[in-house]
Design a protein that fits this description.
The complex is a heterodimer of chains A (293) and B (518).
Chain A lengths: L6 H26 L7 H19 L2 H25 L4 H24 L13 E3 L2 E2 L1 H18 L1 H11 L1 H6 L4 H27 L11 H11 L4 H24 L5 H16 L20
Antiparallel strand pairs in A: 1-2
Chain B lengths: L10 E12 L2 E12 L3 E5 L6 H8 L7 E6 L2 E3 L4 H6 L2 E4 L11 H6 L11 H14 L15 H14 L4 E5 L7 H16 L3 E6 L2 H7 L2 E6 L2 E7 L5 H9 L17 E11 L5 E11 L3 E5 L6 H8 L7 E6 L2 E2 L5 H6 L2 E4 L3 H5 L6 H5 L10 E2 L2 E2 L1 H14 L16 H14 L4 E5 L7 H16 L3 E6 L2 H7 L2 E6 L2 E7 L5 H8 L5 E2 L2 E2 L3
Parallel strand pairs in B: 3-8, 3-9, 6-7, 7-8, 13-20, 13-21, 16-19, 19-20
Antiparallel strand pairs in B: 1-2, 1-4, 4-5, 9-10, 11-12, 11-14, 14-15, 17-18, 21-22, 23-24
Classes of the chains: A mainly alpha (293), B alpha/beta (518).
Chain lengths: 293, 518
């Protein structure tokens, strides 16, 4: 049994956790500002695609990453414009973003590369050590940064105030809508970084629907982690752990049905969402708008 | 020692000829207000008289159409609340603008965190603590708002205004949500602020508060100033007349009651609430035909649960409830209505009305299964509309028509409508809990008059109120509730306010040598 829990399993957990952490930190910033973001999945997928696109044309994965971040911010801007500017339903807007991203990436693969549902191979971002991409430590560093931002900075306090009570925040002169635009765009950037990790970090190409529900799992991690950075990190590690275990179990040939193992991360997500999160308390102003005079 | 401001003290706030029109209404129609530095100035008026609009103009939330504002004699023009705050004004809102998951300090500093990018929580907590101590506010800077009672939350709002260095405080209906004890504490705080040289503008529609705390009072009615008086030199009657524009009966005239058979009886009711606390602990009471039984008590002693058990909204753990001799324990609300129970709920927005629905649709609540509202399972909307319109006329519900959404009516008109609906089916028992909360003098007069009229028609009325004035004005019999039990039962006139207050606080009183227990 000792060789089951080896260094490779640890590395696998880190690898699996990375895209979740990026997307979850994005989701956390967005929801703490009071905007629901069910479009994380689409933002990740966009990031994954644009990272490859940028790398393909600019011949440098770092430029590809930058392109992905910009694309994430732009998708965030779409979500922000509809859900904050136009006050439309945030669930509907998020769902639209997911559908749009799924469709447009497949369409562009076909148009640009005449390949159905995949891109050509591109260069990847470097590894810091074997099997660990440079984005892995960056993801883990992001957690304390987000924590520090929320806990100790002025904009962090104002962001949380906007999420708890947009009316109260506005009454003390905080520009709630502006703050939320920035939060949603940041969330798009983070999610896109998670997507870029999948396409130009761990793989070297884009394939259709390659995020495979990780955006939703990240959202579940935010809820499971009670909208706190450290708790969310823990939830991401839990989900990643179950995925890594499943892979490890297949490699080592443990006698559990593969199908069951494959379903494990999603089952955990369901359980997390369905009420094992009794103590979890969303920001009180989630989905609300400040009153306008 | 209370400092009286000099009669010729300089003016802290002057508003002259303020006019503000909104589409379809003139909210302020030439209001004048002069507030001396260092005084507590009451701004008295009925709901909808234009008090809040005036203060929102003063706080820079919207500009006046015409008129002039001077602060300390200097003409001022505010474009945002920030400008008003910078000029030394601060507002304590009626509905607190607090974030419940934040600490006291976080709430106080929000929006005024200082120039630095990062927060120094420790320093902020110290400053907030010192400010609280200086004015006797006794709030823990590290406490979460969630964990504080309403009175404390209000102090946090006051603290925030003081933290902004405001010298003039505007309090919008500050007692609306407070218990009597918290109101006393608030008065103390306001007097301390006055002694420290602050100016206070106190918005209210309650005459008692004007008398209790203010130095001067300005009365406004329908957007116009109708007079300013020295509080010492005026009377409640004069102020009421100024405010309403006609003679008002401040006290209800009612002949002695002629009680008949018991219509509502409650025996030994027990209910366990959250945290295994006995919310109702063996409560018994009775209401007879032709009497108003007032249940006095401090909020949270089981009143809400008692009413909800009787009205079928909660099931008691044990005990018996009987209406007109029929046991109704555990019946559902519709069954209870069939045996003649009516319920005027505590929270008209939450329980009494569906706000986005029209008055016609609201008329159907609780009535939809009865003739003439429906027959054979089909609702007769045309008939319902007719009834709604007729009841609105009879109960003086001011609204454009029965198709108006309930949410667009003023609180007084909403309450009149609920009462119209609840009385329509000529009930035998009427449960009224806080029926005049948040209403202005005119509407209170109407509601009280209706309850007495129902009594005289031989109905049993159970009135639960946290307002002792209301109990003493209306009740033929006064019961005192404390920790889920009735701890006193007196015919009106046989107990004083002070004795009642003692019982409400859990003390016993000696009367004719015998401690009173039920």
């Amino acid at each position: 049994m000792a060789d089951f829990f080896d260094i490779n399993l640890l590395k696998a957990i880190l690898r699996m956790a990375t895209p979740l952490i990026f997307a979850a930190m994005g989701g956390l910033i967005c929801e703490r500002s009071g905007v629901m973001n069910i479009g994380l999945e689409g933002m990740m997928l966009t990031g994954a695609f644009v990272a490859v696109l940028g790398t393909y044309y600019l011949h440098n994965p770092w430029w590809g990453l930058l392109c992905a971040l910009i694309s994430g911010a732009l998708v965030g801007l779409i979500h922000a414009f509809w859900s904050i500017g136009l006050r439309s339903d945030q669930i509907v807007t998020g769902t639209a973003i997911n559908l749009l991203a799924a469709g447009i990436t497949i369409f562009l693969c076909q148009r640009l590369w005449q390949q159905s549902g995949r891109s050509p191979q591109v260069e990847t971002l470097p590894n810091v050590t074997s099997g660990v991409n440079v984005l892995v430590p960056i993801a883990f560093l992001l957690v304390p940064v987000v924590w520090y931002f929320l806990r100790t900075t002025k904009p962090g306090l104002r962001l949380m105030a906007s999420g708890e009570s947009p009316q109260a925040a506005e009454s003390v002169g905080i520009a709630v809508d502006k703050l939320r635009y920035v939060a949603v765009m940041t969330s798009g950037m983070f999610a896109a970084a998670g997507g870029a990790y999948l396409s130009i970090g761990s793989l070297s190409l884009f394939t259709r629907d390659m995020t495979a529900g990780r955006g939703f799992i990240a959202l579940a991690a935010v809820i499971f982690g009670n909208w706190m950075p450290i708790g969310t990190l823990g939830a991401c590690l839990l989900f990643a752990g179950s995925q890594a275990l499943q892979v490890q179990a297949q490699i080592k040939g443990i006698g559990i049905s593969t199908d069951l193992l494959l379903a494990l991360p999603y089952l955990l997500t369901l359980i997390a969402l369905a009420g094992f999160v009794r103590n979890s308390r969303p920001p009180a102003g989630l989905g609300q708008h400040p009153t306008t005079h | 020692m209370v400092v009286q401001p000099e009669p010729q003290a300089p003016l802290a706030v002057e508003m002259a000829g303020i006019v503000k029109r909104f589409p379809g209404v003139v909210a302020n129609d030439g209001i004048d207000l002069s507030v001396r530095r260092g005084e507590i100035h009451a701004l008295l008026g009925e709901n909808g008289a234009g008090k809040s609009t005036l203060m929102n103009i003063l706080m820079g939330l919207y500009p006046p159409d015409s008129g002039e504002i001077r602060i300390d004699g200097v003409p001022a023009r505010f474009h945002s609340p920030r400008d008003a705050v910078n000029a030394g004004l601060g507002m304590v809102h009626q509905h607190f603008m607090l974030i419940s998951r934040f600490t006291v300090t976080e709430n106080v500093i929000l929006g005024n965190e200082g120039a630095s990018f990062t927060l120094d929580r420790r320093a902020a907590e110290r400053t907030v603590g010192e400010t609280a101590e200086r004015y006797g506010l006794r709030v823990d800077p590290k406490a979460l708002i969630d964990e504080l009672p309403v009175g404390m939350q209000q102090r946090v709002e006051i603290l925030r205004v003081l933290y902004q260095q405001s010298r003039t405080l505007i309090l919008d209906e500050p007692t609306a949500l407070l218990t009597p004890q918290e109101v006393e504490d608030l008065y103390d705080i306001l007097l301390q602020l006055k002694e420290a040289g602050h100016t206070v503008i106190f918005i209210t529609h309650k005459l008692r508060e004007v008398a209790a705390i203010s130095d001067r009072v300005t009365v406004i009615r329908r957007g116009k100033t109708v007079g300013t008086r020295e509080t010492r030199e005026t009377t409640a009657e004069e102020l009421a007349e100024l405010m309403v524009g006609r003679d008002v009966r401040l006290h209800v005239d009612r002949p002695p009651s002629q009680p008949g058979d018991a219509v509502l009886q409650v025996f030994d009711l027990h209910l366990r609430g959250k945290g295994n606390r006995d919310v109702l602990d063996g409560l018994s009471l009775g209401v007879r035909r032709g009497e108003i039984v007032g249940v006095a008590g401090v909020e949270g002693n089981g009143q809400t649960e008692l009413v909800e058990c009787i009205a079928g909204l909660q099931k008691p753990d044990s005990g018996t409830i009987m209406i007109q001799g029929t046991e109704t324990t555990g019946w559902n609300p519709i069954e209870l209505r069939e045996v003649g129970l009516s319920y005027i709920p505590e929270d008209r927005h939450h329980r009494g009305l569906v706000l986005p629905f029209s008055l016609t649709e609201n008329m159907l609540l609780g009535n939809s299964t009865f003739a003439p509202f429906s027959s054979g399972g089909r609702i007769d909307y045309a008939r319902t509309r007719e009834i709604a319109a007729k009841e609105m006329a009879e109960f003086d519900v001011r609204a454009p028509g029965p198709e108006t959404p309930a949410g667009s009516l003023s609180g007084g008109n909403q309450q009149k409508f609920i009462i119209a609906r609840e009385l329509f089916r000529e009930p035998d028992v009427i449960l009224a809990i806080q029926p005049t909360r948040g209403l202005d003098v005119g509407a209170i007069e109407f509601v009280h008059g209706q309850l007495v009229e129902e009594r005289d028609k031989g109905r049993g009325v159970m009135l639960i109120s946290f307002d002792l004035d209301e109990i003493f004005d209306l009740a033929d019999r006064i019961l005192i509730i404390y920790q889920g039990r009735i701890v006193g039962d007196f015919p009106s006139g046989k107990i004083t306010r002070a004795e009642c207050g003692l019982l409400m606080g859990g003390k016993t009183i000696e009367q004719e040598g015998e401690p009173i227990r039920v």
